[in-house]
Structure prediction request, 79 residues.
Amino acid sequence: MQEGFLLMALGMGAVFAFLVLLIGLVKGIAVLVKPIAHLLEEPAVAVARPAAKAATQSEDKTLMAAAVAAVHMHRSRKK
Prediction:
């Protein structure tokens, strides 16, 4: 039991040390990149999409006919 706690403490300590090191590296890179940040690409601006138009009843019927024809063709090929 004591050995299990020792292994757990060592494992958690290693993970904690790695995370502290990782945070330090990220902050260090942020400090190094700050002077040249103006050279980097600006983030893309989100473009507003036009609202999707509602399908009319005739379009619905056309789509339904195409779906029925596709199912019929698929079933007739299997035989």
User: Anything to note?
Assistant: The chain has a mean pLDDT of 88. The two ends are 67 Å apart (CA to CA).
